[in-house]
Amino acid sequence: MLTRHDKILAIAIILVAILGFVFYTSFSGDEERQNRIVIEAMGEVVQVIPMDQLEPGKEIPITGPLGDSILEMGEDKVRLVDSPCPDHLCVYMGWISRPGEIIVCLPNMVMVRVEGEQEPERDGITR
Amino acid sequence: MSKTKKMVQLSLLVAVGIALHVFEAMLPALNVLPIPGAKLGLANIVTLLTLVFLGYREALGVVLLRSLLASLVAGTFLTTTFYLSFAGALGSGLVMGLLYLFSRGRFSLVGISICGAVAHNVSQLLVAALLIQQAGIFMYLPYLLLFALPTGYFTGLVVRYLLRYSSLGFNTVDKRASYNKSMN
Q1: Which of A18, A108, B47, B61 has the lowest CB atom count within 10 Å?
Q2: Which residues of chain A are within 8 Å of residue B103 when distances are taken between CB atoms?
Q3: Which ipTM was obtained for this model?
């Protein structure tokens, strides 16, 4: 059946896997995991807000070429409530909260996105 | 062995490999697991058989052709899936071939198969890391490694029993093959 080297190999693989788990769990602190809101206007990052520092109900203006887009903070989520753009697509986008989600207002050149280490939920898997 | 005969044998092996590859892609059971990318590696059986029957270069050729053609059948040619699959095939083919040539019987076919499964995962993750420009994906490796162990074991066993009960019409020129046979 299995040779001696086979067994050593199997044990080595299990050890490496366990070491990998340990390494990963011990080296990923809370700060890295913390999601944050990144606000960009005219191509530049104007503000980064960690998720836990959001003040629900507070509104902040983001200045773009057309005027101020108004960002509203919620419980671990943000949205644009007003914008000087003609079509208001950014407002209709609604709340965003998960890493990878993004609100873009092209006319006013404003971009709000959620960044984080946490894996975004999968829409689907093909193989 | 005549050239024609060898060509036919290679074609048959590639065909069986494609069939297994596509069949495996249709298996629903593994999609239930929370580990995308983990799979049985049924097509690996063919790679190992080629290695035993025909040799290192042929095995590498069969595994690369299989990956290429199976992607055409599955409709994933030149997509991310294809690159990942191709990298996995190349990595596992190389590692299994080298081990088979140079391990001098220290590893049984099961051990070689497990190494192939691990190499498959590692090379896939390497390419995935290159594609998404993030090395963080390697945190995924431990899960895949734990999964590679039983699947590699399984495919190795399949090959072992295949060899024990049938030479499948191949006259093996390779002495190591008969060695492996007697050892099993």
Answers
A1: A18
A2: 5
A3: 0.76
